[in-house]
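Supplementary Text 2. Reproducibility record for the structural model of the 285-residue chain.

All settings were left at their defaults, and a single model was retained for analysis rather than an ensemble. We include the record here because the model underlies the residue-level annotations in Supplementary Table 4.
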Amino acid sequence: MAEAKRVVIHEDDVGMSHGANTAFVELSKHGSCSSGSVMVPCPWFPEAAAIAVDDPGLDLGVHLTLTSEQVPYRWRPLTAPPHSAGLTDELGYFFPDVPRARKADPAAVEKELRAQVDTALAAGIDPTHLDAHMGTAQMPEFTAIFRQLGKDYGLPVLLVQDLSRYNPASYAGPLDTARYDAQVAEARAEREPVFEIVHETPWGRKADAETAYREIFAAIGPGLTFLSLHFNAPGDFEAINPRDAWVRTEEYALFRGPKIAEWVSEFGIEVIGMRGLRDELRGRQ
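Retained model, structure tokens:
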């Protein structure tokens, strides 16, 4: 019997903006978003936390954050590390890019990431998983910390079997994946979920949205697939990033229509959330 095509349709960057928060709620109820993750250091985190408390059925994890890439819209670590820890620029904000963030002191990184999970818990969120903004916490320097956080909190973490095929690898700088690959092998041995592939928002697409996203759904193969998407309702991201906001708002517009359900049926896809993977993982512990 052929292996099922199990797909998490995920919204990254919940908490970055009000429009991301409202899109997450709307599309979750619409059935075209099955999970999301919240950026705890961002300004709109309190609203996202309140939404999650009011509707505990929402599938919401923590989008572990070590970078702040929007200009001039920025955010800082929760732990106020010294500049010498390598987590922040001269003004105390996270670096905007992954190569500099990868140079941070691992002990400072672990302290910050734990603070983000603990803050989400203190705000009343029942997190379903951990993933990583711009892939930074998944990089080889931090993969062991990332997995250990999952173990300590009883949460699945987003691991993809081939880091070189993961979009953050395209802007992360030189990569020796040996440490990452070792963690993936350990995860498989311990029956933790490992995704075959992560498809991300097609940032540089030339085709119209329907054509571009249909190609993504058509390419989904057997096993676990993670769609790393970035829905945003219109109205605020245009001020945060005027040049690229259209990618997020057009993605949101497409997913609030009928096409996603049609493609799920056409391509024989089973849409799952991260809560189910969390419950499976905890059931084996």
